[in-house]
Design goal:
The complex is a heterodimer of chains A (309) and B (331).
Chain A: H1 2-32, H2 39-56, H3 65-91, H4 99-116, E1 136-137, E2 146-147, E3 154-155, H5 156-178, H6 180-190, H7 192-197, H8 202-227, E4 230-231, H9 235-250, H10 255-275, H11 281-295
Antiparallel strand pairs in A: 1-4, 2-3
Helix pairs in contact in A: 1-5, 1-6, 1-8, 1-9, 1-10, 2-3, 2-8, 2-9, 3-8, 5-6, 5-8, 6-8, 9-10, 9-11, 10-11
Chain B: H1 2-26, H2 30-55, H3 63-80, H4 91-121, H5 126-145, E1 156-157, H6 165-184, H7 186-196, H8 198-203, H9 208-234, E2 236-237, H10 244-257, H11 262-278, H12 286-300, H13 311-318, H14 320-327
Antiparallel strand pairs in B: 1-2
Helix pairs in contact in B: 1-6, 2-6, 2-9, 2-10, 2-11, 3-4, 3-5, 3-9, 4-9, 6-7, 6-9, 7-9, 10-11, 10-12
The chains are: A mainly alpha (309), B mainly alpha (331).
């Protein structure tokens, strides 16, 4: 029973992270019908921005709440800007072209971030940027405290991560379904051309969508760095694929679906690797993806709309 | 009579190729042989990926995963038959026959892997295939690294050095011919129709999913062939040779050459392979340059070098005046 509960705690803790990243995929897919391949790498950039900020402020020696807040806001803001820049310079010029073109550009941007960050550091910059291929270790943003109620290990990192992630998802839910921006976003997702005719500034809505998705990815990176502090330029690759699986599982384009999909994937990974085969942990997401595509390609909450001319 | 002529027609490029390759290989220096072998393997990879990404308009970015499947299958077979000899044949001939069998087995198993990956994901639109193949590429690495039978992360070493210029050359001929003849067949027309407009193709009675899956299986099989050739060149089979980086290299070749052009893929694979040899010092910038190349190409010239044109479409036009009397013979 203890083991079962421990897996539950770990699964939820990882699942909320997947959900946060999956939201970025699902929102961009909703408005652009494009898989933003660079999303996993925006997540990676978020982790590194947090790493640099934490080191610059000397968090390791003297962690305070104010510093943690600055790290979060700084990292989310920079990733938001990065998301907008990627959209503006790589995706927007190609919006009217065949979708394959945008897909290839997205892959190009993803590679550029992954391998740009692996280049040797620029000298005389003060900080080791780009970080290079060797992994770095994220400092602890606040002092770790652990509890063991009934033998289940829970740290304050798990609690903070869970509370923040749920808070961000609730905020997003509010933005998407209760604000004017959210209404516009859903309108663009439904039909961009008609939304434009209705006086919605489609470009601006798409930019804001990228800000939202990218900053959520940055938040996810910082929360995840608490339990897995090893960060490297290729970390976004497998996590990006997993988050995409979560988004597809919930029904891509569907905001609540991404949250459920993330949690489901986190729990599935934790239980399957805990009780059955631990060495193939990374294969579980892939198996799940194949299953979803075979049984219900539209995902849990998606509706399958056949393409028409 | 007809069947015999057909057989002769399909076999003569290989016979001529064998003789020509043999002659070239005897005149090559050691360094050049290696460079050309690597270029040849890349051509096989680029041309086969072009069948999916170019002809069919789907987008696979996990070609190296299928290479790995073919490579490990071929490795296992070669290692198992290392000390076996067919009675009545000399050792050399027997080894070559076993090598051929190993390569074919690699193709078959890689094709089956292609079926397993392609069948679920190709029912949907092209961008799903991209991320599924990327995932597959990573998963195959994880599986290999965790399986003792496949040598885990260190891989399997001690393979005999069987890949030579002639074998790779024959592989290139087979791949290019297969791609060319596929493009000119009914089957190929269906693939092109899917690329141009999937909905229209479906309305015209093309079973889109089935054709997409078949194209994907063909491409995977040839990737398996390239994998088998590569490990028998390196004499070592490790998961490091088949990472997603390798997959992206192949994608860059196809995109640079022009998606849909066999000629373009061959040329781009050849040029990039030579360029890599020349740019050894700036190795760490290679992938960044590839990434920039992809983005800039898409923004400025999405058709790549050749677009969908082929050398055998362009050449007759260049020699039209000379070719006219022959062509006008049958009114």
């Amino acid at each position: 029973m203890t083991e079962f509960l421990q897996h539950l705690v770990n699964g939820i803790s990882v699942g909320t992270i997947y959900a946060l990243i999956a939201l970025g995929y699902t929102m961009v897919y909703g408005v652009l019908k494009l898989i933003n391949f660079a999303h996993g790498d925006v997540y990676m950039v978020g982790a590194f921005v947090g790493f640099y900020l934490a080191n610059a402020m000397g968090v390791e020696e003297n962690p305070t709440l104010a510093k943690a807040v600055i790290i979060f806001i700084g990292s989310m803001a920079i990733c938001g800007v990065l998301g907008v820049l990627i959209e503006r310079f790589a995706y927007r010029p190609l919006r009217q072209r065949p979708r394959l073109t945008s897909l290839i550009t997205a892959i190009g941007v993803s590679l550029l971030l992954e391998f740009g960050f692996q280049l040797p550091s620029i000298p005389h910059l003060g900080i080791p940027f780009p970080p290079g291929p060797t992994p770095r270790f994220f400092p602890e943003i606040f002092t770790r405290v652990g509890w063991e109620p009934g033998g289940v290990h829970i740290s304050n990192y798990d609690v903070v991560s869970f509370v923040l992630a749920v808070g961000l998802m609730l905020a997003l839910q509010y933005i998407v379904y209760r604000t004017k921006f959210g209404t516009s976003m859903r309108a663009v997702s439904f039909d961009a051309q008609v939304a434009g005719l209705m006086g919605i500034n489609v470009n601006r809505i798409i930019s804001y969508t990228f800000v939202l998705g990218s900053s959520l990815a940055a938040a996810a990176a910082l929360l995840f760095a608490g339990s897995r502090p090893r960060i490297d330029p290729l970390m976004g690759l497998s996590l990006g694929v997993k988050a995409f699986v979560a988004a597809v599982f919930g029904g891509i384009g569907n905001v609540p679906g991404a949250m459920v999909g993330g949690l489901a994937l986190g729990l599935a990974e934790e239980y399957v690797s805990g009780y059955m085969v631990s060495s193939y942990r990374d294969g579980i997401a892939f198996a799940l993806l194949i299953l979803v595509l075979l049984i219900r390609p539209a995902g849990l909450f998606g509706t399958f709309r056949p393409e028409k001319v | 009579m007809g069947a015999l002529r057909l057989f002769a027609q399909s076999i003569y490029p290989f016979v001529v190729g064998l003789v020509v390759l043999w002659m070239i290989s005897s005149g090559l220096s050691g360094t050049w042989t290696i460079i050309l072998i690597v270029a040849g393997i890349n051509i096989i990879l680029a041309v086969s990926l072009n069948v999916v990404n170019g002809f069919t308009g789907q987008f696979s970015i996990g070609h190296a995963g299928f290479m790995a499947v073919g490579a490990y299958t071929a490795t296992k077979i070669t290692m198992a038959l290392r000390f076996v000899q067919i009675s009545g044949l000399s050792e050399n001939v027997s080894t070559q026959i076993f090598f051929f069998l190993a390569l074919v087995a690699g193709m078959v198993v890689a094709g089956i892997a292609g079926l397993l990956v392609g069948a679920p994901s190709l029912r949907l639109r092209g961008d799903y295939l991209a991320i599924v193949t990327l995932g597959f590429n990573e998963i195959i690495r994880v599986i290999i690294e965790n399986t003792a039978f496949l040598g885990q992360a260190t891989g399997i070493s001690g393979l005999p050095h069987l890949t030579n210029f002639v074998w790779v050359g024959m592989g290139v001929i087979a791949t290019v011919l297969a791609a060319k003849r596929l493009a000119e067949s009914t089957h190929g027309r269906a693939l092109l129709a899917i690329r141009e407009d999937e909905i229209a193709a479906e309305a015209m009675g093309v079973d889109t999913t089935s054709y997409k899956v078949r194209a994907f299986v063909i491409a995977s099989a040839f990737a398996g062939l390239a994998g088998g050739l590569l490990v028998h060149l390196l004499q070592l089979c490790t998961p490091r040779s088949f990472t997603f980086i390798k997959s992206f290299e192949i994608v860059v070749m196809v995109v640079l050459g022009g998606m849909g052009s066999v000629t373009g893929s061959v040329l781009a694979a050849f040029i990039l392979s030579l360029a890599l040899e020349g740019l050894r010092e700036v190795q760490e910038y290679r992938m960044v340059m590839y990434a920039l190349l992809l983005i800039v190409l898409m923004l400025t010239r999405p058709t790549g070098l050749f677009g969908t044109r082929e050398i055998w479409d362009v050449l007759p036009k260049l020699f039209r005046r000379r070719a006219q009397p022959a062509a006008g013979g049958t009114p």
